[in-house]
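Write out structure tokens for Polyphosphate kinase.
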Amino acid sequence: MKQSHDENYKHRDLDWLNFNKRVLQEAQDRVNPLYERIKFLAIFSSNLDEYFRVRVSQLRQIKKVEKSLRKKLVFKPNKKVKQILTEVKAMQADFGKVFHDEIIPDLAQNGIFLLNEKDYNPKQTNEAKLLFQNVLKPKLVAQIISFNEEKPVFLENDTIYFFVNFKGDNNAGLVNIPFPDFGRFYVFNDKSKGYYITFIDDIIRLKMNEVFPGEQIEGIYEIKMSRDAELYIEDKYDGELAEKIYDSLAQRTNGQPTRLLYDATIPQKPLKALRKHLQLGKVDLMPGGRYHNFSDFFDFPIPENKLNLKKEKLKPLKHKAFLNQEDYFKVVQNKDVLVHFPYMDFTVVEEFLEQAAQDQSVTDIKISLYRVADESKLTSSLIKAIKNGITVTVFIEAKARFDEENNIIWGRKFEKLGAKVIYSYPKIKVHSKVFLINRIENGEKCRYAYIGTGNFNSETSKIYCDHGIFTAHEKATKELDRLFKVLEGELIIPRANHLLISPFNTRRTFTQLILQEIDNARAGNEAKIEAKLNSLEDQEIINLLYRASQSGVKVRLLVRGFTCLRAGVKGLSENIYITSILDNYLEHGRIYVFHNNGNPKMYMGSADWMERNLDRRIEVLLPIIDDSIFKELREILNLQFQDNQKARIQDYLEDNRYVTQAQGEKPIRSQVKIYSYLKEKHKA
């Protein structure tokens, strides 16, 4: 039966939920250490909060579009939102089951007890009362909600509140749950017979009668509002885009509601009164558990004698090309250098820039920053370079979601010190992860570049799997120089023939490469496409991959996040096989390989196969022409394709089933194998 247009593509927002199910699978997996499972519950919660603030809010915004235009959509936004809510409710139930039926008992078996206020012994009760009186009570903001008033109370975005149900129908209480210096959890002082932890929420519950004296309290329930995270700014600007964004950040706090998460034990009558008071529809409500903001479990306390309940940290490797080398420029001039994070130490990037900042032969440094870390060696090196008289050009992405404020603050710092700072343009983001260093050697100008898949951020480099290449290759550095001239307004088009630079030549090149594989397959030759990427959404690329499959091209993909392509469908995509790996680290790299009739072509860089990455963002991908680097990336890719421990099949069944280890086959957990491979390769 021929499939309809809609059936050929998975909706990205529904398939993203499928990705978050894989995160939940990691929390369910008893192979993972206990505190790793807790961490994955925190990731699941954090992901879901952002999802409602960004993706669900966008679906809700479609309702404001004229009806005549909405009719042209392949999907109905309201129907999708209902599907999403159904899926999320089921996932929340699984989440609660893991937490209550597995995590809490496993903690207890290890002498770690998470108590609520009903579990406190007399000594703990007294300690909790003192903490409430001295630390928590001064930070509480309590108010009475009158359901008869037309003006609703305002719930701040992602802030947890107690909704306190009083006896009677007209009023209720509302009180914030503050965060003291020690965070969400409190560890009781008496540890003689165990390690006792409580939510600060429960200490407040214990003393709620003091918060609302004179009221008859019938129930205490947590609620949390998520608000629209997007900044809706007009395309035409009177001033700088960065200024507009900075001034508009309050929209995120005051944005329209996208979800009210509530304790599912709230009785229907007060819940209905609260919903109407907040002027919400039924579709805005999401039942949850007793506690919200599980992302706080990133900082769940652990006893010093129980560190075995966490994963063993891998010691970052040093690249042997840089070992005992004082002159990194000389190393890169001789040969391109490939690095991998978090398996390798990110300090190699920081040290390269540090050398450049102190090198009298360096004339200028140009860098694109997408997510700027707080104080870091990298930012310190750029500041040092400015002070040493080097011309520093910093391209700041002002629209990097949730990092806008920090990025703009850093941009202003660099400007004050004398750097040339360029902020992003209204309709395009700069997502590339590149820097360029110009240096005078023997009277001639030499260029050095770094092109990577991950942000210049030492913190995220510890959890994101990324690749990067240092190069002095003439064509690559010349074209990267042209790109920076485009960003600086000196050129309109970078005229790239070697690099792939979006939105200029990336789509066209990928299209030609896929069509070439189709032609090779039709001519009876071996034809293959292999790729590792974060997300697959672009319909033009998907249609080309469907054509490739139908022509006999073998397509093997590793997609970490969502994919809109339906793999394994007879007559449409039976030659396409997709897996997704989720393990200790977040897969973030992008590698593309085309068989090319036995003369394979490989690219590595920042772009996914998404419309925005191909058409609306500045992205850079580097062709891999160095044989040893090609081989290294090829072997890493093969290890990931062979993963039979943490890989899940992504096909039309959408069930996240694990790749099974065949009889006689060795277990391959690719992230562990990659570390071992690199350790052996780079041993001194």
